[in-house]
Amino acid sequence: MSEALAVVTPVAAASRAVLRRIEPGNMAVCSHCGQPVKFAAKLHKMQVIANVYVDGRWNRVEHFHDECYGEALSPYGDPTEQAARATRVSS
Ligand SMILES: [Zn+2]
To answer: How far apart are the C-alpha atoms of 51 and 76, rounded to whole Å?
Structure first.
């Protein structure tokens, strides 16, 4: 195996997405459908927040409705769930 084929990809410089609960007062607009990503008290809706890197540098944050991110075919990879390691609640 040639070393020339090994591409070094800095992990920190790659776009990535996380899945988060939508908080009250959230003002984000979905990058896919253009609608506000609104908090709904009883629905426990989730949003996808993506940190977008361009040419290895952080460029912007994009928000998506959970379902819109799927419709957009996960442009920034599969969203990872945050806060899973900080608090572990067994129900
Ligand atoms: Zn949307």
So the answer is: 8
